[in-house]
Structures are given as C-alpha cells and as structure tokens.
Amino acid sequence: MAATNAERQKTFRERLKKRLAGVQTPQLPVKPKISVPATKRWDAMLTRAIAILTTRRDEMQEYHDDRTTQWQESERGEAFQERITELENIISDLEINY
User: Fold this and answer.
1) If you average pLDDT over residues 7-31, what whole number do you get?
2) 96: part of which helix (H) or strand (E)?
3) Per-residue pLDDT at 51 exceeds 70
4) How far is CA 9 from CA 16, 63, 68, 86, in A?
5) pLDDT over 80 at 88, yes or no
C-alpha cells in the first residue's frame, strides 16, 4: 500500500532532523566590539564550515552509492563523483590549514 503524502512528509522531516542533528554546533562566540584577534570565534567558524561541507560530501556520496552501476559509470555519474572528489579536496585543505 502506498504511503500517503502526510506519511511521506513525516518520514522526510524525521530523516532531515537526524541529518541536521550531527551538523548543529554551538553558537559562534560574539564578535568583540573592539578590534582584537578573535581566534576562538574564527576557529569556531572554521569548525562549523568543515562540519557543513563534510555533511554535504557524505550526502552526495550516499546519493552516488544509491544509484545503479550503469548511472555511476555514465558521464553524469562520473561528473558527480568528480564533484565529490573536489569537495573532499576542499575539506582536506581546510583541515590542514586549521
């Protein structure tokens, strides 16, 4: 029996809530009113950016892995995998400089 729209939406919201639970980080420290190095704030911003990009990479890889082998080996599949690889390189560069 096919699920109703309401059931599908509820399932989607639950899946989304689980995905976002791993991404949520504490609020960034408040920017000081005077001009001083805000190392803790900058580090928190970079940590948050890495977490977001890592989540995106993981979701993209999951999407790629769920496709058929035929799709994965197609031009679109290979282009998609190249985007994932580029994202991995960006994450790696950020982690090294962090």
Assistant:
1) 72
2) helix 75-97
3) yes
4) 10, 19, 25, 32
5) yes
* Own/partner long-range contacts of 86-94 (Cβ < 8 Å, ≥24 apart): 87/53, 87/56, 87/57, 87/60, 88/57, 90/53, 91/50, 91/53, 91/54, 91/57, 94/46, 94/49, 94/50, 94/53
Residue 34 predicted with pLDDT over 70: no
Residue given tokens 């035929």 in the structure block: 70
35 neighbors 66 (Cβ within 8 angstroms): no
d(CA 94, CA 80): 21
**pLDDT score of 23:** 60
In angstroms, rounded to a whole number, what is the distance separating the alpha carbons of residues 53 and 89?
A: 11
Helix residue spans in 24-74 (DSSP H):
39-66, 69-73
Q: Residue 33 has which token pair?
A: 């009113």
Instruction: Give the start-to-end residue ranges of the domains of the chain.
Output: 38-98
pTM over the 0.85 mark:
no
